[in-house]
Amino acid sequence: MYSYIALGSNLNDRHKHIEDAVTHIKQLPHTEFVALSPLYETEPVGFTEQGLFINAVCCINTALSPYNLLQRLLLIEQMLGRVRTIKNGPRTIDLDIILYGDINIDTPTLTIPHPRMHEREFVMKPLNDVLRTQPRVA
Question: Which of 82, 102, 129, 132 is catalytic?
Answer without folding.
Answer: 82
